[in-house]
């Protein structure tokens, strides 16, 4: 039983070495949050984007959300469909 416990403890220690440090994770979270805020600001109606035509909704071409059924996209950019007639 002691051997099993020691083996498990050694394994846990080896696995723990591959964990990312808390400071690293906090930095990644900070960068992701900053990036997502920039995206949100670009998609926000308060920032006019050339060619957006008042787009309020979008989705990837790989899916069709229920709100998009029967609607004509106002723009197609890459793999995304944009709509401006969604309430």
Structure in words:
The chain has 2 domains: 20-48; 50-87, no CATH class. A hairpin with a 2-residue loop joins β2 and β3 (80-83). With 87 residues, the chain is of the alpha+beta class. Strands 1-3-2 form a 3-stranded antiparallel β-sheet, with no helix packed on it. The protein is elongated and about 70 Å long. The chain has helices at residues 2-16, 22-43; strands at 57-60, 75-77, 80-83.
User: How many structural domains are formed by the residues?
Assistant: 2
Oligomeric state of the chains present here: single chain
- Please mark out the parts with pLDDT under 50 across 5 or more consecutive residues, or reply none: none
- Overall, the morphology is elongated
Q: Into which percent range does the helicity of residues fall?
A: 40-55%
DSSP, total strands:
3
Major sheet details:
3 strands, antiparallel
From the alpha carbons, calculate the radius of gyration and give it in angstroms. 23 Å
Number of helices: 2
Task: Please specify the SSE layout and strand pairing.
Elements (H helix, E strand, L loop, with lengths): L1 H15 L5 H22 L13 E4 L14 E3 L2 E4 L4
Antiparallel strand pairs: 1-3, 2-3
Summarize the structure.
The chain has helices at 2-16, 22-43; strands at 57-60, 75-77, 80-83. The chain is of the alpha+beta class and 87 residues long.
What keywords describe this structure?
alpha+beta, 2 domains, three-stranded antiparallel beta sheet, 13% strand, elongated
